[in-house]
Amino acid sequence: MKIIFTLAAILISGTIAAQTFTFSGGSGTEFDPYLISNHADLNALNTMTNKGQTINRYYLLTKDLTEPYDGLIGTEASFNGHFDGGAHCITLNIDRTWDRYPAGLFGTVTHGSIRNLAVDGKVRIFKGAAIVGNPSGEAVFENLVNYADVIATDKSVLSGVGGVLGNIVALKKDKSGVTVKNCANFGTISCEGSTVGGVIGYSGQQQGNILHNLANYGHVDAMTQITPFGSRRVGGVVGNPLFEDKVHGLANFGTISNDSISGCIGNASPTDFGELFYDSQYSPTCFTIPSQARSTSRIIGYALKGELSDSAWLFEEEMFPRPKMNGMELSLRVKLYATPVILDEADRLDNITHPFKVVMRNGVTWQSENGRVRIANDGQTTLVSAGTDTLVARLGKYSRRLPIKVNLPTGINDVQTSSESEYNTWFTLTGIKLSGAPSTKGVYIHRGRKILVK
Questions:
Q1: Is the alpha carbon torsion for 283, 195, 165, 129 positive or negative?
Q2: For the chain, where do the domains classified as CATH 2.160.20 start and end?
Q3: Span of the secretion signal (predicted)?
């Protein structure tokens, strides 16, 4: 049942006018928040934000909103209330590349809080992030998850683009700054500008911010870290943390588009930092930032227990650690992205020369899209042919694509095949499967060996 609330709004003329906001229930107090269950409620929240009437108001999302939402909350003013997503997900379809101001589901959040929310879908913006484009002041952000792919068109030296939060600005030195805890990105973040990160693009200004227990499982697609003009400040988790930031418990379990992007944070400015990790086989980098590079086998399971906080992270055998996010860390999609490929210590995703293992916990299944790898029922693999491939992992209705490159050993007798059905198949040295026996002279792969056909 819809409930209509009327608030008094003082006009410039000095007269009083009635401003009506319609929500699905509640009175806006901490113990009786406005209930949001559809797009109309989100639109009402945008109007209320633009009127500057969200201070000390509370809002609760009551269910997943799967129909794509193309609006923004706070197109003309800052949101200063408290939004609880209830561990639900809003699907987005934001296209705002024409707007030069940082954009997201929420434009600017200054003194309020956003908690327990996931977003999915597509986000095309000039700069910003999927959830909050411009966090500032003393706002609090906790238990936020981004599944959406974010494409930002800004190419400047201060883009401020991330999956969860874009451009954090804390201006008042006597205040506490912005607090960000237990958030994760699973989407692809694409931007050709600077200050880009999987979770947060930029954080800083006059007051340090608290950045604790953040993880990236998605993909950061950005330009090279070093240009003729200096560092681009691009990182797997945070692009540009600044001097007074308190940065602890960050981990990148995702991938990066090139090895000149920093594995975890994009610069070494913070003086208060620690427990920063990245998977060097998923995100190999030549950029030296004070983060600890670990191979997959040394970062999964309980390997980081004791270094990352037990109270803030979930550890599980053969799985990437997950920030505790009000139960969202137990969702099928999060479990899928936390399920790793365990490579030989000498390999990385873009240079696989040894058989490896795909983890099949929690019902995850794997498939080699181009057939260059055989995957056995226990997750052990055998290399079939050289070349690029994509490992596709599935759990329930969700899937994840993980590009790889197989480089077969150079020895004449040490090439392996993938399966019984392909044991009798012939391949070229570039990995192309033949329909039958070779019809021309050359060297081919057959039954696990290189064969010279004369």
A1: negative
A2: 67-338
A3: 1-18
The single residue listed with the structure tokens 């290399």 is 383
> Which residues, in sequence order, are CB contacts of 138 under 8 Å at separation 6+?
110, 111, 170, 175, 176, 177, 178, 179
CATH architecture group of domain 67-338? 3 Solenoid (2.160)
Q: Nearest Cα to 165, choosing from 176, 177, 179, 155?
A: 179
Residue 204 in this model has a pLDDT that exceeds 70:
yes
pLDDT value, residue 452 = 73
The whole-chain average pLDDT of the chain stands at 88
- What pLDDT is recorded for position 430? 56
Helical segments of 22-90, H only: 39-50
Q: Which among 234, 233, 237, 178 has a CA at the least distance from the CA of 204? A: 178
CA 218, CA 292: separation in Å to the nearest integer? 19
Of 291, 152, 159, which Cα lies nearest the Cα of 216?
Answer: 291
> What is the C-alpha end-to-end distance of the chain, expressed in Å?
80
Tell me the C-alpha distance between 8 and 17, whole Å: 6
H helices present in 237-368, as ranges: 332-337
Q: What is the pTM of this model?
A: 0.86
Give the total residue count for the chain: 454
CB 390 within 8 A of CB 401: yes
Other beta carbons within 10 Å of 414: 11
- Which helix (H) or strand (E) segment holds residue 273: the answer is strand 272-279
Which token pair is 12?
Answer: 């410039």
pLDDT band (50, 70, 90) for residue 289? confident
223-277 tens-digit pLDDT: 765 554 445 789 999 998 988 899 999 999 999 998 888 899 988 778 888 999 9
